[in-house]
Amino acid sequence: MAHHTEDEWPQSSAALLDHPEAHECTLQVFACGVAVFHLVQPHTPSSLTELAVWRYRSYATDLPWARTKIHDLLDADHSRVPNPEYVLSLYWLTSTPWTGSEYDTALRLPSTPSVLVDRGASGGPAPLDGAVEATLLATGFDHPGIVPFGVRGVSAGYAGWSGVAYASISPERSLTVDELVACELTVQALWCFTHQIQQMIEDGQDPSMPEEYGWRFRAPRTPGSPRPARRRPLSTSSCGRPS
Q1: How far apart are alpha carbons 195 and 185 in whole angstroms?
Q2: Does residue 206 sit in helix, strand or coil?
Q3: Which pTM value belongs to this model?
Q4: What is the pLDDT of residues 82-110, one digit of tens each?
């Protein structure tokens, strides 16, 4: 059954769908025209490398599944159905064998899973030697694209372009799963929306906007560097900032 959010911005509607592997699948459709699939997939990997490989392999099947599902729901000409933009993983850590600095590194690695996977393997994404993960856990890992957003003593969280990882240290004070998911759904919808506007402009088209709004307010970006414009919806909002 679909439900609607009427008192929030951006407005959206949601409906439960079936997915071949997900424990739960929700389609969130925002008033701006963006559709986001939210898949809940409990996973107990034997290593972070196994998790990273699963991440790449599942994306290879989830993207075409999403396109087919949208086609079926719209009952439209398959050639006119847009391709899904991307998949972003949000990892909620419930238990771990690591402590201290290894615990911190273990949260960082899912945000940049490519360091644990051979993406060019002939048979598809393959795990790197287990020594790679062991070395990273022992020596630490950082990446300029990873942004911390946890609160000391309350939670630990890291966000990157490939994923977000979060662990609750003090459940009564940290974010809940629903709060974090709601934030990410909104942020990803805004990212997709602004990316579509940017793509139309770069293709020489003027986006169609309501008269009371416009699109020329968006700050210019440095040629060849689209990330500042795409990051703006999050960096200039209160999303992800501790209250």
Answers
A1: 15
A2: coil
A3: 0.79
A4: 788 889 999 999 988 999 999 999 999 99
